[in-house]
Design brief:
Elements lengths: L12 H19 L6 H11 L4 H35 L6 H25 L6 H12 L8 H24 L10 E5 L14 H12 L3 E4 L5 H4 L12 E3 L4 E4 L4 E5 L4 H13 L5 E6 L2 E6 L5 H10 L6 E4 L10 E7 H13 L2 H4 E7 L6 E8 L4 H12 L3 E6 L7 E2 L7 H12 L4
Parallel strand pairs: 1-2, 1-12, 7-8, 12-13
Antiparallel strand pairs: 3-4, 4-5, 6-7, 6-9, 9-11, 10-11
Helix pairs in contact: 1-2, 1-6, 2-6, 3-4, 3-5, 3-6, 4-5, 7-14
Length: 432
Amino acid sequence: MKKIQKHIPMIGLRIIKSGIAVALCFVIAYFRGNEGIVFYSLLSALWCVQMYRSNTKKNAIQRFSGTVIGALYGLVFLLLLQHLMHRSAIAENEKHLFVVQAVMVSVSIVLVLYTTVLLHKKQASYFSCVVFLSIAVNHAMDVNPYYFVWNRFLDTCIGIGVGIFVNDFSLPLKKKTDILFVSGLDDTLLNEKSNLTDYAKVELNRMLEKGLLFTISTIRTPASLMEPMRDIHLKLPVIAMDGAVLYDMEEKMYRKVYVMSSTTSQKVLQLLRENGLECFVNIIMDDMLVIYYSESENPAYNNVVKTLRRSPFRNYVKREPPQEEEVVYFMILEQREKVEQFYRVLTEHGWEKELKIIKYDSDQYPGYEYMKIYNKNASKENMIEYLKEMTGIRKTVTFGTIPGRYDVTIREGDSNKVVHIMKRYFEYGREP
């Protein structure tokens, strides 16, 4: 019987920080002589310990504003309830007291929630209610209402402070912000499921937040990058289409594009038609990728159209491309022998000296081959040089799967290695 091995994840940094935050809250409570209720400090600290510093600050503001609103309403509630108890006989009848308290709490909850709306603090509404209810329900009979309300507020502030401190704390090491890190994507940064691991997402975003200069270089189009990189907060443009474009994923715009002239584009298109080949003509218009295609009996070609045209980042147009437009690249997907035959035609005409031509087998369509035709200058190396000029950074570290072509070679299936090495280099200065 085959033994099934289960992967047990390591204890993450957030878990460790949470434990440290809880311990610090207990230490502070000890030196305060257990004046308050440490439970509330613990809840606030755990709420503020997040994966990213930006989330910590956002959660801290939510918790603090919610506590202030809830505590103020709680104090008013206690004072009002005690006033009613002194002026009437409801304190002598438990049922009457329960009814009065229930009505007052219900009405007060409406006021608490409406206040968060008026102050544009709707995200803090839950915490406001929790704080108010903890005061109004559990401490309605306290002799000194100010005492608990103050301690409730102070306990929360202590927890928030501890959570922020623990989450922001790092060793005083000088970060390597003078190096541009460039990684491949498929078989380099992504795993076998074409996704980033949870570890890679968290660590990569954490380092980017601290000033890591990082981008990716891939043969993919910007549209196909959106899904695997949607959770990564990239600040630099990415090198896409095998070095033909530099795309800013934050601004949704192309920073630099290598194109073929309209004259060259029409000559290549005519040559394709003469050899009976259909192709996808990729043109960028006003920061929008437009892909022209035509009718075809090629099942693989038609399936690409059917599958990819659903994307909001691709715009498929079923007609001939405008003659005056400059083409970013042509893509052919055909049976291998037809692609090889056309490649021989291109070499006979000397096009391999004037254009960048790449071809590779299709994994999805057995027996088929891709061919892509670009501007001669469309290369990852040229785009990296452009990025270096743009950032003012001279040193780079590149990651890829082809031995000898990159500074660091990544084996297939070792998707966390890029982040591991960058972390050692960026935070501790250990060269790969």
